[in-house]
């Protein structure tokens, strides 16, 4: 089905950005590692890219982001993953790990939004960790932000009727009957680092949890970096005010491989008859 798949346990593949359209938004940042032909970049190489920025990436607490090796089990609040980023700027990173590599790159792509998502988690996380009661029980907005941070995407669209097709789960009408319009009217930009990781070995079933942004046509004609800046500013504003995205179901499911060019098999109309993937809607109790 797919021409490229990466075994996530294999060594680094410098050509991963060419394997799927999912990687197009991060290509300009991945180029910082194009010299690594024979093996993984190290954490010092990650930090070198951070240090070369004209301005540091800052957390909401004003700390410059920096790469550190992943530690063992945290002993107190400040040593947990998200609090450590917020309080010290230190992002714990595993070596030779695709998940953490994409997490690293998304900070370059969406620095304001990543910082705000991190900051929103802190008060509730501190209460759970310090009370030592049900550490995994997060609030609806925390769950939504985690879902988006891991598996989210943003859809920029200049045609509100197409956005409504997404909300209504009208996949065949969107992907097949309006196929010729997708290239000029809609652009999907992946946000979640776990979703990028899935893109290394794509499969029918891959679904993004999306924020839908109605935009003017000129936004869709911008360069990749201009679009990333636009998205970063829009998301930062949305998450800062906490509306309308408050819980996981506020995000719109989107079957990624329906997009033209994302799976070589979707050139056939029958591809979109798979209702296990192109579902007619959320199940209701």
Structural notes for this entry:
The chain has twelve helices and six strands. By secondary structure, the protein is α/β, with parallel strands linked by helices. The chain has two domains: 124 residues, no CATH class; 128 residues, no CATH class.
What is shown here, in short?
With 285 residues, the protein is of the alpha/beta class.
Mean pLDDT: 92
Which bin fits the share of residues in helices?
A: 40-55%
Low-confidence stretches: none
Q: Determine the structural class based on helices, strands and strand pairing.
A: alpha/beta
Domain unit count: 2
Task: Report the sheet with the most strands, covering strand number, pairing sense and barrel closure.
Answer: 4 strands, mixed
The number of distinct β-strands equals 6
Q: Walk across the major sheet and give the strand order.
A: 4-3-5-6
Radius of gyration: 19 Å
Inertia-based shape: globular
How much strand?
A: 5-15%
Order of helices and strands: HHEHEHHHEHHHEHEHHE
End-to-end Cα distance: 35 Å
